[in-house]
């Protein structure tokens, strides 16, 4: 009985010691008494040194303790950039949307729209991933469309923005990319005998992207699909359009008669025949042009 009583008396003592030791083991946050300026300066220094995860931690403290004021606003801009550099696209998009929603009249909203478009533009699961899947019909160009819509809104809302020129260049590239994707899907359906589907896809390319380099290819798919569908009058109309708008196309294809007509479009003379300059800016041989961003994508400062 005495042993049990002694054990019961020891319980609160042991608990108090555990609590004391636990508290003693906790380190104090050295930033707990910092001002908004001190927090921002520390976070910005880590960001400049490319310690993105560390900078995000400090920016979060700044946002939690001082949610208002110029340092908080700049911190919300910077953290979106930090997330992007860490390839955390979901968090970067959320940060961009949050800032645009909370500060719609801020002078750097154009940057947040530009950064948001860059996130979509360089999303390997979206734009650059369009040409990875083996099944053309299953590829998802969603990120490319979202990038285009965001860039279009940027140019429309801020035509004098420092990001407007780059936005227009990317929009042109996206149009060509989306047109190529849709044309490839139309060809995919044609090769499998799904002529109604190939007609619909080819028509969509012609109507949506009339000036894209892949428009003549879409016209050829449309003409061939009409022929396979037993619609000679419709095919004749498309033939007329091709001959009027791309007079050198059929002649060039005739010279390469040994190949299937769709293989013609993989040849180097495709851009010349279409009459559209599909070349990309030759900025650096070891880096694609779309990896160059205004001010390296860095956020503007107050």
Write the topology of this structure.
Blueprint: H1 2-25, H2 36-48, H3 52-65, H4 70-85, H5 89-102, H6 109-121, H7 142-157, H8 164-191, H9 195-208, H10 215-228, H11 232-245, H12 249-255, H13 270-274
Helix pairs in contact: 2-3, 2-4, 3-4, 4-5, 5-6, 6-7, 7-8, 8-9, 8-10, 9-10, 10-11
Highlighted features:
302 residues, mainly alpha, Serine Threonine Protein Phosphatase 5, Tetratricopeptide repeat, 64% helix, elongated
What does this structure look like?
The protein is mostly helical and about 300 residues long. The protein folds into 2 domains: about 35-105, Serine Threonine Protein Phosphatase 5, Tetratricopeptide repeat (Alpha Horseshoe); about 105-295, Serine Threonine Protein Phosphatase 5, Tetratricopeptide repeat, CATH 1.25.40. Helices cover about 65% and strands about 0% of the residues. The protein contains 13 helices and no strands. The chain has helices at about 1-25, 35-50, 50-65, 70-85, 90-100, 110-120, 140-155, 165-190, 195-210, 215-230, 230-245, 250-255, 270-275. Helix 5 runs antiparallel to helix 6 (about 110-120), helix 8 runs antiparallel to helix 9 (about 195-210) and helix 10 runs antiparallel to helix 11 (about 230-245). The N and C termini lie far apart (about 75 Å). Mean pLDDT is about 80; it is low at about 130-140 and about 270-285.
